[in-house]
Predict the structure.
Amino acid sequence: MEVSTSGGTTTQTPENKESKKPSNSAFKQQRLTAWQPILTAGTVLPTFFVIGILFIPVGIGLWFFSENVREITIPYTHCISIEDKETNRTCADLVRNNSGALCQCEVHFTLDTQFTGRVYMYYALTNFYQNHRRYVKSRDDNQLWGQIDSDPNSDCTPFALDQGKKKKIYPCGAIANSMFSDEISLYHQSLDGLKPVSLIRTGIAWDSDKKFKFQNPKEYGQGAKMWDSYTKPKAWRKELWELDPENQDNNGVQNEDLIVWMRTAALPNFRKLYRIVNSSAEYFRAGLPMGNYSLKINYTYEVESFHGTKSIVLSTTSLLGGKNPFLGISYIVVGTICLVLGVLFLFIHINYGKSTWEMTNVDPRTPWIAN
Amino acid sequence: LTVTLEVVRFIQALFINWDLDMYHPETDTFATARTSNLNEELGQVRYIFSDKTGTLTRNIMEFRGCSVSGAIYHPDDLIYGQNELLINLEKGGDSARDIRHFLILLSVCHTIIPEYPSEDDGGGETIYHASSPDEIALVSGARSLGYAFEKRTPTWVEIKALGRTDRYELLNTLEFTSTRKRMSVVVRSPNGNIKVYCKGADSVIFERLKRDRATEVMRRRTDTHLHQFSTSGLRTLCCAMREISEEEYNEWQVIYKKASTELHEREKRVEEAAELIEKDLHLLGATAIEDKLQEKVPETIDALLKAGISIWVLTGDKQETAINIGYSCRLLNPTMELLTINKDSKDETWDCIVEYISKSDATATRSKQHMAVVIDGATLKYALHPDVSEDFLALCCRCKAVIVCRASPMQKAEIVELVTEQTGDITLAIGDGANDVAMIQKAHVGIGISGQEGLQAALASDYAIAQFRFLTKLLFVHGAWNYDRMTKLIFYSFYKNICLYIIELWFAIYSGWSGQIIFERWTIGFYNMFFTCAQPIAIGVCERHYSAETRLKYPILYKLNQDSFNLKSFFLWIANSLMHSICLFWLSFFLYGSGVVWSHGKEGGYLVLGNFIYTYVVVVVSLKSGLETRTWTFFSHVSIWGSILLWFVFLILYSYAYVYFPVGQEMLGIAGLVFSSPVFWVGLVVVPTATLLPDFVWKAMEVPEFETLNVKMRSFDEEKGKLRKQRRSHKKGSEDLHNLGVLQAIDRVRNFFAAKEIGNNKQQAGAMTEADMRNSSGDTFNPEDLLNLQVNEDQDEQDDESSLGREENLNQMGTALVVRSIHVRKEEVLYLDGLDEIEIG
């Protein structure tokens, strides 16, 4: 950025003189070879048609994928309590009036078609803002990694300390505290009578979470030393070591239900994987057969207070996951729009534009000259 | 944004420095951008204030010819190896005598001091020193014709006339002053006669000629020669002489001596005394000197004017010289009306200005290009008075050119300041000397000519170039490019940020307005730092809107882009980015559906959706930069594909960072989740496609084949055959045309030129011309009608055109029409090839 320094020295040596001359590189002279994507009829029209022709079949394919997914949603927010069948009281009522109460209820449903392949059982909550800023923050990853020496992360407040018991909460925070606690079992009403469907509790959480984020403290079982200073979250009915009564390895913070719950959902209406139908069990090797089913629910989780609902979703999956016709539809729509645009532009081109041939070849027969 | 801007500006400044086209090999200087903050302003210049001497001209005078006793001689015209003048001199006769006196006058009547080269330097020719370069030119001219001035003492001068040394006794020297506009010497020639040799401006010499028929004839002839000289931009002087008797001289000398010793009003007395002897002159002839212009100055000025830039020449020279230079550098042309303002008081000046304004109003807007204001320093003092300045400016703005002569450095600065403040347009001042420094500093952009007159101007300037002609490259190419780049860069920076951050707003709808962010903090932080920093820089550095050659060839392009940074395009970009953010968010939203986007039935959590969206944003924003890039260089590819790739790599790395460092726990394993989802890949195709589809359609609408350009061209052709048919299609065309925005219009020119550049339209233009020729002979065709139908707004020019030859007109229209149909909205008409006149509405 300097102006010519001294004329004297430069004129003496030719090399020096040469050095002041800017170099003739393509970059410096801004002559880099450039591709100029000029849109012409020759490029625009094929683009539209190619997109259209490619997208529509792909969209139809995707749509079929989605259509092949079997899915049934069974709402049970207002299921009738078994004990109070006479009064027709709903479990929602019971639980709302007496938090911590256990209400049992039964929901019946019918599968019109067979659910083939692996069948996944989800619980779906609505109007539950798991993506609320303060909710999302309210966790302590160190605690979940088994480090219990320090105090809970301040983000956990007001779910960091149990004031009544004067103990720290483990696992702390709003997320853990609000963990989904209904217990659901599925029964098939076959000719032989009610047959329980075997459900798997593991394999529902992400490996990366299990491996790197959740680790139990060395001792966390009943009577372990840590419980002198810690207590379970207030809303929990079960102790930390009781989360999976069948499998000791699936307990504590390493319990997969907890891990799934701790991965906060993106939207206020969400579903979370609850169980997988055990396809190695008898009768259910090919999935869930057609027929009548019932859900037995230990209803403890209260959703009425925030106008939420609960449902159980049974679903198979395709290559693309759950049922979502939007994928295919989006491809079909985009492809169609492109085709329509292509036709429209072609129409304009033919009617109002001149073809290259006409432009380049003028002879007396060219219509606009012959006239 | 600021960092990006600075980086880009710095590189742009380097480009200016590196430009080989602006490298001047003779002086070994290259262009220097001394600031990088004004790069884009170079693209918006509307007023250029130029110094004359050293900037437009080289300040090297050259003797270019003379007219002696009614015949023109050029010093380079040789017959049989000898100059015609000398041949005639040998022939004898009246004209030979005149020629001899003429040459003696040239070698005697001056104030030059010779310097003799020392023997060490090997002798050589005598070097002349004078206050005015004109005199050197004349004396050197005489020397080349054989009358060499050799020696000067206070009492005599010695000349070598065709080898013979003559000594002329110098009796009196009546010096040149600006009021006298002439100088004379009274000499005693070797044979004892006393002669008065007088040279000066034609106006003053002609007044003092002998009143007889022979002189009158001579005067007329010389006058036509003078006109010839001055129209070719030469500075002229008239030469005359008178032989006086001893008695008359003695008589006069007494008066003169008395006058020159007068204490009171001596100058005036001397002048009066000089009047007495400078009369009844015998006209010898006239000289023509060329004040050599810098290389390619006329072409440059021509181009600048075509680009719609008003040029103001501010010079310290006298009016005639300034006007002469104005003509020679094509700033003025003979058809132009010169509005000269030379008044002695504020009121007179004001009246004069107001009168000119009303006059120019009366002659309609069309005559804008035919007017030029000439004002001198003394009058300028009044014109710059606060009361008058507004009207003065109004008048000047109506004119294409303004010449200010006898302006002091301060006045130069004042004018620049006035225009800068009052018009609000970007002004550029260019000069080379110390007297231009004030002006250079006052203007928005100051340009110094680095070279002859020292470095003051260059040091005070924002840009230093070696030659005036480099201005075209600097403005038309660098300036316009940089402006275009900056415009895009700024718009694009707004766009990309809005595009990402507004998505948070859409997400807030679903997060209970809690302020939860859908992306991870650090990924947001790195958005501007890594994933979208290369694209704007690539645009800012490598974008080339038209090639340099096209820009230099069609200066009008300079004018076209100047308003591209406006509120309307800003809001278009904002709307564009809002639309993109909406598309990106909700398309991803529906794509994500229930959250089960894997065949193994698990669901992901908010960051999976967040990173879906983030990836699509990076892809869309990168591709958008590609869509806006007109010239894809290597860097464009690197920036676009590189940024996308960078994000993928970053995501993978960041997903496992928590394993090793206590950061990004939420992001743990996200890459695995995202990339293992087939929905993500399916969406990676459809979401950007759907989002950018409207942009693509918008761009496609500008394709010549699809829009009105061709409708118009076709109707133009059809017109010749069937008027009715033409009307129908034209109607369609004009409706469409009506719907087109200015932005599109500008872009369409681009398409046109781009197509032209690659040679696509060559034949097309040819076909048009051919068609024109064919049909112009037909009676049915009437260019006026056609133009009426084509472009109603062009009424003005059309009248002009029809006065030109029709056939020629048609040829031009072929090209002009293409562009014209593009610019109707702006009421701008371009004539490209073949048309000199460009008018901007």
Q: What stands out?
A: Residues 707-747, 755-841 of chain B have pLDDT under 50 and may be disordered. The radius of gyration of chain B is 36 Å. Chain B touches chain A through 114 residues (CB under 8 Å).
